Amino acid sequence: MENKGELLNQLRIDRNKIEPPSRAPWIVAVIALALVAIAAAWWWVSAQRSFEVSAVTAIAPSASGSSAAVLQATGYVTARRQATVSAQITGTLSEVLIEEGEHVDAGQVLARLEDTAQQANLAQAQAQVAQARAQVGQFQARLDQARRDLLRQQDLVGRKLVSKQAVETAQTEVDTLAAQLTAQQRSVDLASAQARSAQVQLDYTTVRAPFAGVIIAKAAQVGEIVSPLSAGGGFTRTGVGTIVDMDSLEIEVDVNESYINRVVPDAPAEAVLDAYQDWTIPARVIAIIPTADRGKATVKVRVGLEQKDPRILPDMGARVSFMEEKTATPATAEMPKGVLLPGSAIVQRNGKSVVFAIEGDRAVLKAVVPGQNMGELRLVEGIANAVQVVREPPAEMQDGSRITLKK
Fold first, then answer.
1. Mean pLDDT lowest among 24-38, 173-187, 193-207, 267-281
2. What pLDDT was estimated at residue 328?
3. Does the pLDDT of residue 154 top 50, yes or no?
4. b/e 250-282 (16+ beta carbons within 10 angstroms → b)
5. How far apart are CA 311 and CA 334, in angstroms?
6. Which candidate, 272, 252, 257, 251, places its Cα nearest to that of 69?
7. What is the pTM (predicted TM-score) of this model?
8. Strands (E), 146-275
9. Nearest residue to 224 (alpha-carbon basis) of 119, 102, 109, 95
10. Are 206 and 238 in contact (CB under 8 A)?
């Protein structure tokens, strides 16, 4: 019986010795779930956040020909002759005869100002000219009569019928009238000059094109005040419209100063507009501007287009290939593989080189293989020609992030 009692005592559970269950697995699970939720929320926020970005187009490099590209750079089409036309005096517009996109000739009337005051001033000046000329005629008639009187007096003195004093008096009259006639003629000159000044003021009310070109902006409407000095503050227009001479279009590119030694004045070049990827425009280096941009470490280069075309518009993006003449070209020359992109478009994600292709309003991650540098651009494999990519992807941008393009 004692053995049975001991066995029963051994089988009893001592509630004071029961250990509470461990909470560590639950804590770990809760932390893991929280981390997953945070990661999911971060991914969702990153995907929903909209990034404002600039786009750049992937461009296939030019094939080798009679010349080879020693450098490629991007820039913009600019107009060498561009003017915002304004009136030379302050006035209210009574007519505006231009619209955007209209071609105008040199000297063509673009607008007219209210000219009532100028017309009145011109009429007054012309009346003063007429009055001065009439007085000239009056003095001329009196002078002619005085000269005839002088001749008669001289004849009478010769016959001793009058004294010499009468002749002297007649001569004095002639000299006086001659001086008055000269003074009156100078008065005619003064009145004529005032009339010309009034005509100039009247001409200032007509705004004309300084050169032939295309209107790219209409800045004022009928009834608005225009002034070259903007005397009326925000309520006064300083210009009527902007004219661009399309024959003066050229391309300006910023070349990294590390590569500027590859660019030579008057060297051949090729330009490709971002809007027309398959159109190669022959070009030539006009000049290297002899100053560098300290902030960007670049030098500005002017490139002239040897073909004029209505498709070329100011401020269009362009890629310029600076060429070097070759003495001989292999017949089996091949195009380099890949496309050209700015180095800023290539970023690292998870240790891999990627770019973000633009598909609608989303940035889609694309793995690429960077190749050799070609000036400011880099040869890249893994993306097709003419695909638009983000020029400078932010560090927070992920696959599928929403984007808006900068205007």
1. 24-38
2. 42
3. yes
4. bbbbbbeeebeeebeeebbbbbbbbeeeeeebe
5. 30
6. 272
7. 0.58
8. 206-208, 213-218, 225-226, 236-237, 241-244, 249-256, 268-273
9. 95
10. no
DSSP string, 73-125: EEEEEEESSEEEE--SS-EEEEEE---TT-EE-TT-EEEEE--HHHHHHHHHH
Please write down the HEC assignment for all residues of 53-83. Answer: ECEEECECCCCCCCEEEEEEEEEEEEECCEE
Task: Among 207-221, 224-238, 343-357, 369-383, name the one with the lowest average pLDDT.
Answer: 224-238
With a CB cutoff of 8 Å and minimum separation 6, the contacts of 239 are 84, 85, 86, 219, 220, 226
Tokens representing residue 217 in the block: 């902006």
Our CA dihedral for 332, 285, 371, 259, rounded to 10 degrees, sits at: 130
pLDDT digits 0-9 by tens, 52-108: 888 888 877 754 444 566 788 889 999 999 999 988 888 899 999 999 999 999 999
Summarize pLDDT for 41-52 with one digit per residue, the tens: 665 655 556 788
Residue 357 contacts residue 290 (beta carbons within 8 Å): no
